[in-house]
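pls design
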């Protein structure tokens, strides 16, 4: 007897071999001919294994007939070719053991389509559905692929802190971290004495590991981070989470052009990687979520990416004659509707927008010679909009210090970041790729809450 997972049995199980499998009942049908058909899923793949249980089995009444949707089973049986259409094999049960029963009257996941809104209220059970099982497997494959891409190219994976004292992107989206007794602080109503706090100063959850990654890039050459990031975004959009995962490569001796090459190379690699490894799950998304998922992926996996300047993007938007909700003009930030218009209607492929006005980007981006724009790059893809934000970093000490003062930042707070320019500075670049936005693009799922196991968004912290 071979203990196996459903994936192994479906991909090369031996006819006539005896297998032991364990999993959860997706559905059961009892035929008049004296058999029950059980669709068993164990999460190893999207497909179920069909189990045939004869009513002559001694445990038929007690175990098989109580195997309702959602219950867990152990089955021992012999693999046969299946006469049924749509499946090659089936397992003829010799023994069926009900491990974890389910009360069918209260089990919330019946064998029908549930809305994503409803499934979010049962985030602990939704991985048992086809969609969320497939998302989890794709997310896993993408994560593995990301490490593979960087490891094969000599990048060093580094771990940057989750609790930090600096705010990389400008205030307003920070979660504060404290060990102070908030009730005490609230009652006093005076200014908070942070010297009493654990770190002796204000602390917050990181919004980016970039600055720390820069320190390591300027020693190890090429590094990347891959970890959780926190932003107290108090907006309910389909593309923002309060806790999300970000991949941040940082490269020394690399300008914006090199940065674009790494970003494009990474995206192409990942799209090919999932097309190869997640065929069944992608077909499922293509069928049930968005009919353009696979064709779009194939397009961006090998096709080219348009690189345009911000100034050109604004021109294209102004000339479009299209009515946008938000105003377009040089110096204003591009909104999601603008990004999607450019991506989906003008170019119909991913675009990389570079050279943004300095006033809408952070102080650390390298100033261009025009003194008006910075060497920023945002990568936009159809349906999702921005998935990558990056830049060449300002590597000149004087310019960086001046930009800090201009944007109201005290250089003393960033003494160590300035030191990186004082000692052995080098041109360097990097970017942040949002894992969830990438998974949204790959799966076609329109809401970011459905591509992370337990989403954190305003008002939601149940699980
Ligand atoms: P946006 O304009 O969409 O809010 P951003 O300009 O704040 O993005 P960056 O600070 O450049 O984004 O962060 C890098 C990447 O992290 C983004 O391109 C995106 O993929 C992802 N990202 C940013 N904020 C969030 C969020 N709240 N939830 C999920 N992913 C995010
Ligand atoms: Mn943002």
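designed seq:
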């Amino acid at each position: 007897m071979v203990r196996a997972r459903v994936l192994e049995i479906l991909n090369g199980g031996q006819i006539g071999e005896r297998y032991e499998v364990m999993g959860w009942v997706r559905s059961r049908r009892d035929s008049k001919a004296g058999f029950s058909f059980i669709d068993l899923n164990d999460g190893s793949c999207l497909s179920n294994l069909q189990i045939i249980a004869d009513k002559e089995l001694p445990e038929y009444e007690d175990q098989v007939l109580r195997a309702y949707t959602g219950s867990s089973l152990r089955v021992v049986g012999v693999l046969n070719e299946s006469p049924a259409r749509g499946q090659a094999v089936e397992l003829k049960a010799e023994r069926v053991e009900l491990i974890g029963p389910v009360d069918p009257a209260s089990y919330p996941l019946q064998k029908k389509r549930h809305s994503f809104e409803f499934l979010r209220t049962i985030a602990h059970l939704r991985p048992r559905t086809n969609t969320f099982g497939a998302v989890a497997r794709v997310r896993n494959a993408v994560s593995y692929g990301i490490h593979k891409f960087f490891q094969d190219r000599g990048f060093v994976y580094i771990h940057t802190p989750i609790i930090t004292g600096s705010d990389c992107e400008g205030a307003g989206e920070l979660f504060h971290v404290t060990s102070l007794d908030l009730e005490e602080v609230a009652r006093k109503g005076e200014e908070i004495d942070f010297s009493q706090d654990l770190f002796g100063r204000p602390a917050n959850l990181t919004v980016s590991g970039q600055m720390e990654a820069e320190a390591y890039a300027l020693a190890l050459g090429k590094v990347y981070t891959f970890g959780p990031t926190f932003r107290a975004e108090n907006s309910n959009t389909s593309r923002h989470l309060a806790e999300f995962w970000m991949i941040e490569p940082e490269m020394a001796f690399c300008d914006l052009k090199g940065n674009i090459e790494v970003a494009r190379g990474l995206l192409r690699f990942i799209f090919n990687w999932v097309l190869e490894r997640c065929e069944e799950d992608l077909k499922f998304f293509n069928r049930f979520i968005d009919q353009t998922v696979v064709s779009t992926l194939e397009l961006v996996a090998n096709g080219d990416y348009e690189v345009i300047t911000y100034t050109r993007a604004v021109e294209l938007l102004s000339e479009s004659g299209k009515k946008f909700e938000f105003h377009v003009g040089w110096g204003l930030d591009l909104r999601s509707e603008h990004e999607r218009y450019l991506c989906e209607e003008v170019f119909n492929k991913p675009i990389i927008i570079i050279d943004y006005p300095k006033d809408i980007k952070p102080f650390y981006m390298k100033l261009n010679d025009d003194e008006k724009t910075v060497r920023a790059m945002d990568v936009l893809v159809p349906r999702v909009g921005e998935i990558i934000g990056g830049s060449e970093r300002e590597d000149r000490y004087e310019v960086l210090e001046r930009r800090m003062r201009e944007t109201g930042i005290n250089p003393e707070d960033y003494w160590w970041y300035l030191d990186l320019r004082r000692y052995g500075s080098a041109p360097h670049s990097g970017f942040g790729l949002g894992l969830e936005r990438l998974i949204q693009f790959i799966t076609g799922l329109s809401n970011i809450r459905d591509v992370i196991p337990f989403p954190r968004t305003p008002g939601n912290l149940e699980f």
